[in-house]
Backbone:
């Protein structure tokens, strides 16, 4: 049977067999509320908010898991349906910490939004609340079970999308809690700090650790010289916090906004993304030509690095020794830049604005102090920056355009695409090809490694050498690639792995979209496409053509993989236990 015919609220509709009632209803413009549902991630019918009436059925049915059938008659808005939804929502609220004005998700909370839509004005069933746990020991993620509604969206994300699985539903009945095993802290588990659980949470039960107070204190300290770097993905996501659609580009507004907060210098992580390509590209060629450990695996994503350290330590030698662009920048600003400008590095306070919660963990790693100090002092997420801007009364939409400060603000289009899955690989190939062949690359767009497919493979001809490459985003896809390599089923030379779905544009520190918004748009793909538009608009699109990077090597570093570069820009990794 190609199609089934059914009726929803009196509207006759055809649908593909296997479709759910929720899917079909939304396609014809009928809104059915959801709470635990998250498209393609969590479809378990647990919260009972999406219930509908089915003619002939004895009870109300959950539309998110109810497959359509021939002749089915559905009513989505009957008195019984409305009353049942309100009843379920009031029970959830009776066990919820409803201190909404002080919650980080205030005005951006799916539970709050549903309460408004269904006209909940009071809690009719007050009573005992479950015992709550507040866990803030992780450097990146805060867990507050007083706000948890047991939707399981975080569990599905951690297990199925990331393949990590450090949280689960524990105990039973009224005592059920979403937590690591034995109620351990996230800091005691092999959590990779990716923050995808935060992205999936409909309420404030999970959030990033807020470090904005540290930055405000530094900005107010006259003895500190406060610098800031901004990640590539930020330019296509920050605008969402100020009402713009996903993918809106705010590159030129970023420097102006940050100067209004009081930063002494506003730099761009894209500068050290270009630098990363010179170092990592040279490292790849050295391994390829001199019998080094292959495949080389990129090291820009700290969540992926920690995942490898816990789950695949046999591949630690395959990891590039390059630090991430964030950490390269931190090392340079307290050495090269301090010397160049005559600044005392002990008084430089280095702030990083990232789409990633794992970057908070990364900057605290003991290896990241090659400047003689902690190279990056504080990492803020996109969301934290937006809160600072709003607190200061700065509206990104109303700002004039500005430029990043030189020299650490000069970059290329190759650096910008670091924000999308496949971007690091493409940027590296643009440079590697020209280094090897000495020829100008005519078509610099490597479409083979672009897109949101989970794993992408390609063979690239680099001056007569066939280079097999793979790109994976999300850690469940990383597992697939690593297992193929381990089992001898794949012969790759170069692998890019990004921890988060879509790459950095889908990072755990990015603006939060509701389940309904995710239904309407593939926000990761939209942001990624915007990143490629940024690349196309740049006058320079190859990392090795960056004049500021060329000058850095001439004045300070010497050569890629040289002694100075090795000291400041490279690091090592450590096998980690699964639990501590």
Residues:
């Amino acid at each position: 049977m190609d199609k089934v015919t059914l009726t929803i609220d009196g509207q006759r509709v055809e649908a593909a067999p296997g479709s759910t009632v929720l899917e079909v209803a939304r396609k014809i413009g009928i809104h059915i509320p959801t709470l635990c549902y998250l498209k393609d991630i969590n479809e378990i019918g647990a919260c009972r908010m999406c219930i509908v009436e089915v003619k002939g059925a004895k009870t109300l049915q959950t539309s998110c898991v109810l497959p359509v059938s021939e002749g089915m008659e559905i009513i989505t808005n009957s008195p019984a349906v409305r009353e049942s939804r309100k009843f379920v929502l009031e029970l959830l609220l009776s066990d919820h910490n409803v201190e909404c004005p002080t919650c980080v998700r205030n005005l951006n909370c799916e539970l709050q939004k549903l309460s408004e839509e269904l006209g909940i004005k009071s809690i009719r069933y007050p009573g005992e609340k479950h015992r709550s746990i507040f866990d803030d020991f992780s450097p990146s993620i805060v867990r507050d079970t007083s706000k948890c509604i047991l939707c399981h969206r975080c569990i599905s994300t951690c297990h199925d999308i990331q393949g990590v699985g450090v949280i689960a539903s524990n105990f039973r009945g009224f005592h059920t809690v979403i937590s690591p095993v034995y109620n351990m802290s996230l800091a005691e588990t092999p959590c990779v700090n990716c923050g995808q659980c935060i992205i999936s949470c409909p309420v404030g039960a999970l959030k990033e650790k807020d470090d904005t107070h540290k930055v405000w204190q530094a900005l107010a300290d006259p003895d500190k010289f406060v610098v800031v770097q901004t990640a590539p993905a930020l330019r296509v996501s920050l605008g969402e916090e100020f009402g713009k659609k996903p993918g809106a580009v705010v590159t030129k507004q970023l420097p102006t906004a940050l100067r209004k907060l009081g930063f002494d210098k506003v730099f761009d992580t894209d500068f050290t993304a270009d630098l990363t390509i010179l170092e990592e590209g040279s490292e790849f060629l050295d391994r390829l030509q001199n019998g080094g450990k292959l495949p080389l695996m990129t090291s820009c994503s700290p969540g992926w690095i920690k995942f490898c350290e816990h789950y695949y330590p046999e591949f630690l030698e395959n990891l590039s020794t390059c630090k991430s662009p964030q950490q390269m920048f931190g090392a340079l600003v307290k050495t090269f830049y301090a010397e160049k400008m005559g600044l005392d590095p002990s008084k430089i306070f280095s702030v990083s604005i990232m789409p990633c919660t794992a970057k908070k963990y990364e900057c605290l790693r003991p290896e990241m102090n090659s400047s003689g100090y902690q190279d990056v002092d504080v990492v803020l997420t996109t969301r934290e920056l937006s809160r600072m801007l709003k607190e200061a009364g700065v509206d990104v939409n109303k700002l004039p355009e500005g430029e990043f400060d030189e020299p650490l603000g000069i970059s290329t289009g190759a650096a910008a695409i670091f924000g999308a899955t496949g971007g690091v690989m493409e940027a590296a190939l643009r440079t590697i090809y020209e280094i090897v062949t000495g020829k100008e690359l005519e078509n610099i767009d490597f479409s083979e490694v672009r897109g949101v497919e989970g794993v992408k493979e390609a063979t690239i001809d680099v001056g007569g050498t066939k280079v097999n490459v793979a790109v994976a985003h999300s850690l469940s896809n990383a597992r697939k690639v690593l297992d193929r390599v381990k089992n001898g089923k794949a012969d790759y030379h170069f692998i890019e792995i990004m921890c988060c779905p879509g790459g950095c544009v889908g990072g755990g520190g990015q603006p939060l979209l509701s389940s309904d918004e995710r239904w309407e748009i593939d926000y990761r793909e939209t942001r990624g496409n915007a990143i490629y538009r940024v690349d196309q608009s740049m006058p320079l699109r190859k990392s090795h053509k960056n004049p500021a990077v060329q000058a850095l090597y001439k004045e300070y570093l010497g050569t890629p993989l040289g002694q100075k570069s090795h000291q400041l820009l490279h690091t090592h990794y450590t096998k980690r236990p699964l639990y501590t």
Notes: The chain has a mean pLDDT of 96. Residues 155 and 576 are 23 Å apart (CA to CA). The first strand starts at residue 4 and ends at 8.
